[in-house]
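User: Please predict the structure of the protein below. I'd like the answer in C-alpha cell form so I can feed it into my own downstream comparison script.

Assistant: Understood. Taking the following sequence of 159 residues as input:
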Amino acid sequence: MRCRWERRALALAAGVLACGGGGPFTPDLGDPRTGETAVFVLRTVAGEPLPAAWIANEDVTITVRADTIRLRSDGTGTRVVVEHVAEQNQPVAPERSVQASLEYRMSGERIEIDLTCDDVILQLCVAPPHLLGVRTRDALELDHALNYRVPLRYERVGR
C-alpha cells in the first residue's frame, strides 16, 4: 500500500508529463504554444566589449559589431551577426550581415547550438555543435565557439 505523499507525487509527475514536461519546453523561454522567444545580445568577446575582434590572423581581422541569438521554446531559433571584415590587401573593409537558423538542445544549464549550413556552393560546413556553453535565465556564456575567441557573453534583453 502506498503512502498518501507517494500517491500525490505520482499524480504530480503524471500531470507534468501530460502537459509536456518531457519535451524541450523551458519555463524561462516561454510556452511553445505562444511562440514566445528569448533574445540574447552579445556584450563581450573574451572579456572585451563590442566592437571586438573575434577572428584575427595575419591575413584578416573580423570584428563583431553585433550578434543576436533568438531562442524559441521549441528548440529552434535564429542568429544575426554584423561583422567588419578587414583583409590585409583590401583597402576598404566591408561590413556584412549574416543570418542563420539554428537548433539547440539543453542538458541542465548546458546548451548546444547547431547552426544551419547554407553554404551550398563550397560545402564548407563543419559538423555541429557549433556553440557550447551555459544558459541561465539572464545570459548565455559560450565557452566553445568554432573559430571565435571565447568566452562569448550574451545578455538577455526584453521579456
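That's the full C-alpha cell string. The first helix runs from residue 4 to 18.
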